[in-house]
């Protein structure tokens, strides 16, 4: 087949949904700040778990006096990291409270049982204040992160639904 010959649907594809296209819009400055605070919060949580995890894991394998010395040596860092995370959480809360649109959106999102401020922050950032995903089915599809074979609960639900 010659390289210049394309079938009609392939050539028409760019024009097919021309009336439904939306141009990308830069998120508002408040949402950009929210994203920066969220990234800082995630980094602090990662650093805390990198430092605290090995300390807890090695507890049964080393001398108890040496374990106490290690905990004592790292305790100030762990407290400082936790203090910084709480300060970032407070900054996020102030940012949300200072913007009426974000405050209303956070109120709606956190009214769902099981969704707290951290999850609401990620939803607002990922959807650009619920503007990029307007269809509930698309929102549900984007919320699924694990394939079915990784989650036994999903397999049980799948078998119950199909069987």
From TrEMBL:
<dbReference type="GO" id="GO:0004803">
    <property type="term" value="F:transposase activity"/>
</dbReference>
<dbReference type="InterPro" id="IPR003346">
    <property type="entry name" value="Transposase_20"/>
</dbReference>
<dbReference type="Pfam" id="PF02371">
    <property type="entry name" value="Transposase_20"/>
</dbReference>
<dbReference type="GO" id="GO:0006313">
    <property type="term" value="P:DNA transposition"/>
</dbReference>
<dbReference type="GO" id="GO:0003677">
    <property type="term" value="F:DNA binding"/>
</dbReference>
<protein>
    <submittedName>
        <fullName>IS110 family transposase</fullName>
    </submittedName>
</protein>
<feature type="domain" description="Transposase IS116/IS110/IS902 C-terminal">
    <location>
        <begin position="108"/>
        <end position="141"/>
    </location>
</feature>
């Amino acid at each position: 087949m010659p390289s210049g010959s394309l079938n009609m649907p392939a050539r028409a594809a760019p024009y097919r949904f021309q009336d439904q296209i939306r141009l990308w819009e830069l998120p508002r400055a408040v949402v950009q700040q929210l994203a920066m605070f969220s990234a800082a919060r995630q980094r602090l949580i990662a650093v805390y778990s990198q430092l605290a995890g090995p300390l807890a894991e090695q507890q049964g394998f080393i001398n108890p006096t040496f374990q106490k010395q290690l905990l004592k040596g790292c305790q100030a860092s762990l407290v400082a990291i936790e203090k910084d995370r709480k300060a970032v959480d407070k900054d996020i809360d102030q940012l949300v409270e200072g913007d009426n649109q974000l405050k209303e959106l956070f109120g709606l999102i956190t009214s769902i049982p099981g969704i707290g401020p951290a999850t609401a922050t990620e939803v607002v950032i990922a959807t650009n204040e619920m503007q990029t995903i307007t269809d509930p089915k698309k929102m549900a599809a984007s919320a699924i992160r694990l394939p079915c074979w990784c989650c036994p609960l999903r397999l049980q639900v799948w078998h119950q639904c199909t069987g």
